[in-house]
Amino acid sequence: MSALVGVIMGSKSDWATMSHTADMLERLGIPHEVQVVSAHRTPDLLFQYAEQAEQRGLRVIIAGAGGAAHLPGMCAAKTHIPVLGVPVQSSMLSGVDSLLSIVQMPAGIPVATLAIGKAGAVNAALLAAGILGHEFPQYQNALKKFREDQTQTVLDNPDPRDF
Ligand SMILES: Nc1c(C(=O)O)ncn1[C@@H]1O[C@H](COP(=O)(O)O)[C@@H](O)[C@H]1O
Predict the structure, then answer these.
(1) 98 labeled part of a ligand binding site
(2) Where does substrate bind (predicted)?
(3) Is 11 one of the annotated binding-site residues?
(4) Is 41 annotated as a binding residue?
(5) I need a labelling partner for 58 at 20 to 30 A (CA). Which of 28, 104, 132, 136 fits?
């Protein structure tokens, strides 16, 4: 099956964070693709990627970027499919710069903004599963199973001293 989720990131250096998105999509069995695309460094490629996303069959785009993180917003400006933004933790400002760059979109062009770093990267994949779940019940079931397993793991390990 061709990719339903496009995972893009501003730089190879974002892969340490965005690999958590890919890992979770893999775990849920959701077909996806990953690619470095930068609004700053490869603006023409970004426009082409966003403009062609829908016709290529993508249903959701997850865009991770750090610092002056314009990638998710510019991607959202060029496509109608939902864009989920993951703020990558930058070295200088700990990702607060990334978060604010992504979250403060003007009314009319939404980006669904996740938490900074790994938590946001994982949750973006789970959110994508929820969005896809209406059209593809198998991913809704995979999401439910993930949640049930997570709950059970916590219930089975109540002692915080056991690691
Ligand atoms: N925020 C953006 C964009 C963009 O928004 O288009 N392109 C690259 N970057 C970010 O620059 C940071 C440093 O990149 P390098 O490590 O390549 O210098 C990365 O976190 C990347 O997401």
Answers:
(1) no
(2) 11, 14, 41
(3) yes
(4) yes
(5) 104
Retrieve residue 145's tokens.
């199973």
Ligand 1 close to Cβ of residue 10 (< 6 A)? yes
Token pair 């900074």 in the structure block, residue: 116
Domain boundaries, the chain: 5-162
Strand pairing partners for 32? 5
Give residue 100's identity as a one-letter amino acid code. Answer: L
Collapsing DSSP to helix, strand or coil, 158 comes out as coil
Does the C-beta of 116 come closer than 6 Å to ligand 1? Answer: no
Q: Which amino acid is at 135?
A: E
ipTM: 0.99
Question: Considering only CA atoms, which residue is closest to atom 8 of ligand 1?
Answer: 10
What's the pTM?
A: 0.98
Rounded to whole angstroms, the Cα distance separating 95 from 98 reads 5
Whether residue 163 is predicted with pLDDT greater than 80 in this model: the reply is no
